[in-house]
């Protein structure tokens, strides 16, 4: 991995975590929707990142958000689980159908539909795990499911907007 890619990932980490901590953690629409945009950082890490480094990066990312919200463990666990699932879904959804290598999964690397599905599944897994941990009961299972699904859809839309506004289509095999 070249140094330019490392600095771009550090910049993306700082931007997304700061957006999460300063803006999105203060948004809780209708008691159900809480966007977690910083999960996009984990979804967009380079494909050459190994499973252990990926899980350590995800752990650290979730820990940063947990420390800022005084909810130690919820974001950390959900991010680590998503990092584990990322490798599986990345291979099956994006890399499987792509003949040329993808340096970093994004809206503009490979098929739009493949990335959209990959991102939606990661966000859904994150939100299901996070909301189940938050409530820690299956009493209101449908409320948890509704909250996770609505949060996933809103976060997915915000993530697609983020990529559309900040990444340029002219950079195929994304280097941003």
List the keywords.
mainly alpha; 66% helix
- SSE-based structural type: mainly alpha
* Average pLDDT reading: 86
CATH topology heading? Arp2/3 complex 21 kDa subunit ARPC3
Major β-sheet, in short? none
Portion of residues in beta strands equals under 5%
Number of strand segments: 0
Number of helices: 6
What is the CATH top level name? Answer: Mainly Alpha
The count of domains is 1
Span between N and C termini? 13 Å
Can you offer a commentary on this structure?
This protein is mainly α and 176 residues long. It has a single domain (3-166), classed as Arp2/3 complex 21 kDa subunit ARPC3, CATH 1.10.1760. 66% of the residues lie in helices and 0% in strands. It is globular.
Task: Break the fold down into its secondary structure elements and pairings.
Layout (H helix, E strand, L loop, with lengths): L2 H20 L16 H5 L7 H19 L4 H22 L16 H24 L5 H26 L10
Helix pairs in contact: 1-3, 3-4, 4-5, 5-6
Task: Give the gist of this structure.
By secondary structure, this protein is mainly α.
